[in-house]
């Protein structure tokens, strides 16, 4: 009989990555590429790969595999791949090019990323990410991505949080958009060539698993409502993160966890779900009517200075009337070595602390100032506008305040999720044939992602990693053809149809959004910037009760089975209600603070995160065991050979 721990989960067998070669870390990726089996060009034409999601990770992967000659079926729920949420990334993309000659290197990028993740990431994957980063820039320049350039024509760089070098390449405040256009044109080239078939406005609702192997997906045409079967030789999930479990986040409103969660329910391990990132530089909440939050790029922290009044009674004053000696530039004071460029988790908690002290600014008291007065005086308004103009314009349109004249007001908000499906060095999940790339997997960021590393990981996985690892699996083909009447296909399609029917038949009294907002409030208050044992236990019970009420009392007014956005939202919220509970269980079991996971019971005397490496230096990979059943925890031990584990300091 397996012991039930805390009444919430059981402990299973350890899990390990067996794909990374046992060679020095700088030789590992080259060795793996050499060892991986190849598929000759003629045989590639006989193989089909499904890719779900067409942001940077999925779009780059589809374009690359199509160019290699595989048949690719690419799916997105947007009306075009150009509307993938990657488009919203603003500040830049990291690469170890050392263009500024400030002592950057592959090893330093690797070290900064491991340290930034608070020593909870896998060394092998992070080093590979740093190693291929330089290739990404060359690839994107060749595609015509308009990176910012210096006067002499060389690519420009700027700094981001958690580092002391300039390694971030950028296209003003539109870097994600420009990179996505590059990936999109590469993808469309393959669509035109006939190697990629594009299915827009299609949402994956389940995974087809045949004899323990991923062989396809069940998707719903969001325009006609048709439930479709799509089979292939391998499936790639590139569906982004699950930050919308909090309802209010910087994510697009359509971002969801359904693809990952459907795979999880069929056996794919979900790793480190409690590792969510709170971004320090967002426009504060202005009212209950809001459905999402707006990010202000971290790049603004290069030249903007963050402060609050020293005295609470000054918080309602016009900031321009508060003299310099009455201002607390608290990041510069507490972390002199990094100042305003500390990592996101530290900057977010510091903002929360000063607001908790009663020194927050703005109507709600939940805000701090991001002030460009010094930068404008130093560089001139035109120079500031050249670097950040579109971000300033966006801020003014949303708030009605001119940031050239009045300091911006910012506050932390949910932004990114470091957790995701567990993958090995090849990016394959524990379900053979199921690969996971970009933000949808857990592999590269540990407990906190450094700024400008999301775009780096997405393009790294899509252009350079997956195309060199999936062939090792596909070389075992050709695989048995799976027909629509195969029992596993029929079972998956039936699951989807029954779920749709159930949602439409409930006919309760509460809207889908009301459940989503209530879940988001529970998650933000009890599994947000600060977690406690008591709060997490309360959250688990509250989420369970809310989930039961959802299936009893949700109301979808439109009963049509074709175009029905409320039905789409209901399915996504149902999955968030299950994910939210797992996130709280994961946060409760990890009795330490690390990165974005801050347990109030585990902190240093000066309020910094306190890790417990002797107990928690592992990846928590959770196995689904059935509805209402306790999940199984599988631990992957994290062994550091190249970076010394020590308490982070940015002072």
UniProtKB/TrEMBL annotation:
One of the record's GO cellular component terms: plasma membrane
Positions annotated as active site in the UniProt record: 344 (proton acceptor)
Cofactor(s) required for function per UniProt: FAD
Pfam families according to UniProt: FAD_binding_2, Succ_DH_flav_C
Keyword Transport: yes
Compartments, record wording: Cell membrane
InterPro entries associated with the record: FAD-dep_OxRdtase_2_FAD-bd, FAD/NAD-bd_sf, Fum_R/Succ_DH_flav-like_C_sf, Fum_Rdtase/Succ_DH_flav-like_C, SdhA/FrdA/AprA, Succ_DH/Fum_Rdt_flav_su, Succ_DH/fumarate_Rdtase_cat_sf
Protein name (Swiss-Prot/TrEMBL): succinate dehydrogenase
Source organism per UniProt: Bowdeniella nasicola
Name of the coding gene: sdhA
